[in-house]
């Protein structure tokens, strides 16, 4: 679908211890002593000083590639930056990709240290009147990472993983250190091995609280106790293999009658629930001592209590029976292995990662190529996420700008990605280096989406959601359109208009302020401003229609009113289908 057709439908650490187609759809420092030791103080106007990072992470290493002999085009380098980061800070970021080439840029990202969310909370505690942390501080850490972190690819992949391996604070039941340490876990393993990631997620207390594995104990008919099945069900349905068997290319395996072949049944769920019994708070005095007010319980991995573990036989995937007599540790490891080695994991997980980074409807060949890399990275290793991410971003479908015209390729940029793109591309900075970006999930006056605040374990949208009309007719999916409603369209347009007209976001010294001076210097010549916005917010793919409309609008504004020209152009950009849709 031509993006212009949308105009008619829209208003104008490592963790401490332990239509006519898709193309038209619309811490810083661990403690005060460390702070003093490194000479750090309050964050500066361009970001916190002495930002805490974790290095030597899973998936790092390898020889640095040479720069590319033939640089990519500006358009494809801009597309690459959109797929692999939260947007360019200036055209220089795009030119750096051109100068280095994709392989060298990726190598640097795979080896970049990750900004630590956990130590940001330790540092922010010092500024609180009661020396405590709040949920809002955990959200600030996420946005600090997205806006200022040099490890942009890691942050982008970790965000994608957070939309698959979902935990959410929508109910307000989680705590700040639980949110921050879970994000640090996803950042740590973003380029590591999926098996290791799945194990760490399983034992993370935030997941334990969210899906009730913490405190799940063996069956006791006399007391009416049975193992909790929540985590067992979701690790299968959402976190690894899905409900039906898949071929390597993501297509559904069907039986002789054409019906999808299921991957498991309720007996298997019960088997996994039994395998996951006997784990509780890492800092508890006993199995039932689960105190959410103890901070360390939110970042210390769960510990085992053999007396509460189900020791009988357990039916797992593909008729595998875990023999009786296992410990909490041995049964958990066997259960994770059973899931990890299922043939569905590659196509199920890789398709969703492609959707989050590149396109909503990858071809069977694209899914097959990436899933094959998941199954074997070329060195006999299964589950290598570094190899998977590289395969996703360098696949010919990801790198072919012409595919955007075929009516099937591309994706809607998620609201939070568009917001981050604007803040980074407009150089938004605060006086103290902090931010006050907190809950953005309101639908009527905000973005309708916010990290770690999905309404359910199914994320804000499902990977198979399709929009009624031409998209559904063509057999396409459009996940992000599940949160694209009349209300969120109007709310989002108003959100960006307020951002642009008020020249920033937030309050006080933490307000992210936009300096329009560089754009005002371009605004005297509309063509110069339009081309700059084209590179920064349209991946160099602004349609002729949008370019003509924007140029005519700017020409109608007095040449000496440069700020008005800039604001008008940015508001039009935020509402333009060829910005909203990434191709």
Structure notes:
It is a single chain. The chain contains 25 helices and ten strands. Strand 5 and strand 6 (321-322) form a beta hairpin. Helix 14 crosses helix 15, helix 14 (345-357) packs across helix 16 and helix 20 packs antiparallel against helix 24 (562-575). It is mainly alpha-helical and 583 residues long. It has helices at residues 32-37, 74-84, 91-100, 102-110, 117-125, 135-148, 152-162, 176-188, 194-203, 205-210, 230-237, 266-275, 328-340, 345-357, 364-375, 385-394, 396-399, 415-425, 470-473, 486-501, 517-523, 526-537, 544-555, 562-575, 577-580, and strands at 53-54, 114-115, 279-280, 303-304, 314-315, 321-322, 411-412, 504-505, 512-513, 581-582. Strands 1-2 form a two-stranded antiparallel sheet. A two-stranded antiparallel ribbon has the order 3-4.
Q: Nearest-angstrom radius of gyration?
A: 24 Å
Strand portion, in percent? under 5%
Backbone shape: globular
N-to-C CA distance: 12 Å
Number of helices: 25
Regions with little confidence, pLDDT below 50 for 5+ residues? 1-51
Q: Mean pLDDT, nearest integer? A: 91
Largest beta-sheet details: 2 strands, antiparallel
Helix coverage percent: 40-55%
By secondary-structure content and strand pairing, the structural class works out as mainly alpha
The total of beta strands comes to 10
Output the strand order for the largest sheet.
Answer: 1-2
Quaternary structure type: single chain
């Amino acid at each position: 679908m031509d993006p212009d057709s949308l105009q008619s439908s829209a208003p104008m650490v490592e963790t401490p211890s332990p239509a006519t187609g898709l193309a038209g759809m619309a811490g810083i420092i661990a403690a005060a002593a460390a702070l003093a030791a490194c000479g750090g103080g309050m964050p500066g106007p361009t970001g916190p000083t002495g930002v805490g990072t974790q290095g030597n992470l899973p998936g790092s290493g390898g020889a640095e590639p040479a720069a590319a002999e033939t640089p990519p085009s500006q358009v494809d380098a801009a597309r690459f930056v959109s797929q692999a980061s939260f947007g360019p800070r200036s055209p220089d970021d795009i030119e750096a990709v051109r100068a280095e080439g994709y392989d060298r840029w990726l190598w640097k990202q795979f080896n970049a240290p990750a900004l630590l969310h956990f130590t940001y909370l330790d540092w922010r505690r010092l500024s609180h009147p009661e020396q405590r942390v709040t949920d809002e501080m955990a959200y600030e850490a996420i946005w600090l990472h997205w806006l200022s972190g040099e490890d942009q690819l890691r942050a982008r992949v970790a965000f994608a993983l957070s939309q698959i391996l979902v935990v959410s604070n929508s109910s307000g039941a989680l705590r700040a250190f639980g949110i921050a340490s879970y994000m640090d876990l996803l950042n740590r393993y973003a380029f590591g091995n999926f098996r290791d990631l799945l194990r760490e997620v399983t034992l993370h207390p935030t997941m334990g609280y969210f899906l009730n594995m913490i405190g799940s104990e063996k069956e006791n008919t006399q007391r009416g106790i049975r193992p909790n099945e929540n985590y067992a069900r979701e690790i299968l349905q959402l976190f690894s293999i899905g409900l039906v068997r898949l071929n390597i290319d993501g297509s559904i395996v069907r039986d002789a009658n054409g019906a999808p072949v299921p991957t498991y049944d309720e007996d298997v769920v019960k088997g996994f629930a039994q395998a996951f019994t006997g784990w509780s708070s890492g800092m508890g005095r006993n199995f039932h001592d689960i105190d959410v007010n103890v901070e360390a319980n939110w970042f210390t991995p769960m510990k085992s209590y053999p007396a509460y573990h189900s020791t009988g036989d357990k039916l797992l995937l593909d008729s595998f029976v875990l023999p009786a007599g296992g410990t909490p540790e041995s049964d958990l490891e066997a259960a994770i292995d059973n899931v990890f080695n299922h043939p569905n994991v590659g196509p199920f997980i890789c398709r969703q990662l492609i959707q989050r980074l590149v396109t909503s409807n990858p071809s069977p060949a694209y899914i097959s190529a990436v899933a094959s890399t998941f199954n074997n990275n070329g060195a006999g290793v299964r589950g290598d996420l570094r190899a998977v991410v590289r395969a996703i971003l360098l696949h010919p479908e990801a790198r072919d700008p012409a595919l955007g015209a075929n009516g099937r390729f591309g994706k809607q940029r998620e609201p939070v990605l568009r917001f981050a793109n604007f803040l980074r591309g407009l150089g938004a900075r605060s006086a103290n280096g902090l931010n006050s970006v907190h809950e953005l999930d309101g639908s009527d006056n905000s973005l309708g989406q916010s990290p770690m605040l999905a309404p359910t374990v199914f994320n804000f949208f499902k990977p198979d959601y399709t929009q009624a009309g031409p998209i559904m007719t063509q057999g396409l999916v459009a996940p992000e359109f599940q949160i694209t409603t009349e209300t969120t369209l109007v709310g989002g347009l108003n959100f960006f208009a307020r951002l642009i007209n008020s020249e920033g976001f937030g309050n006080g010294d933490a307000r992210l302020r936009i300096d329009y001076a560089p754009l005002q210097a371009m605004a005297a010549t509309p063509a110069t401003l339009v081309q700059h916005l084209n590179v920064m917010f349209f991946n160099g793919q602004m349609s002729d229609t949008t370019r003509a409309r924007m140029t005519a609008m700017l020409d109608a504004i007095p040449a000496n009113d440069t700020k008005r020209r800039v604001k008008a152009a940015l508001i039009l950009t935020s509402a333009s289908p060829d910005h909203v849709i990434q191709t």
